[in-house]
Design a protein that fits this description.
Helix content is 0%, strand content 53%. By secondary structure, it is mostly beta strands. The chain has a single domain, classed as Immunoglobulins (Immunoglobulin-like). It has an 8-stranded mixed beta sheet, with no helix packed on it. A hairpin with a 6-residue loop joins strand 5 and strand 6. The radius of gyration is 16 Å and the shape is elongated. The relative contact order is 0.29.
């Protein structure tokens, strides 16, 4: 079984292309490269993992936020970011297990908007 890295997948925001201004949740799932979960108190204890997000904008520079493990949900880490102005943000989410040296990174782009676009579904009669 190969577990040479950590996988990170985005849980929230559900639609990173339209995130409303204000406090936005940021949640990720971190698993071993082999797919095994990380759990509080388990072999790969989520409480020792260091998970953070670097949020970068041209106007505001760079902020770093810590994502904390959700103890009752395997592999889930959560935090929030304050979006004060509209625009694009480059986000790099990094996870590291200091005991094993396993690490992973996920790069995404968030787009903060003043009001999310309403998606209209065509009616069929």
């Amino acid at each position: 079984m190969e577990c040479a890295h950590l996988n990170i997948s985005l849980l929230e925001p559900k639609d990173p292309d339209t995130v409303p201004l204000g406090e936005a949740p940021l949640a990720v799932m971190v698993t071993l490269g082999c797919g095994c979960p990380v759990t509080a108190g388990g072999r790969w204890d989520s409480r020792r993992f260091q998970v953070h997000a670097l949020i970068e904008t041209e106007a505001d520079g760079c902020d770093k936020i810590q994502l904390m493990p959700v103890l009752k949900r395997p592999s889930e880490f959560r935090g929030s970011v304050e979006l004060r102005s509209p625009g694009r943000r480059r986000v790099s989410i990094e996870a590291y297990d200091p005991e094993t040296g396993l690490a992973g990174r996920l790069a995404i782009e968030l787009v903060a908007v003043t009001s999310p676009a309403i998606r209209k579904t065509p009616c069929s009669f």
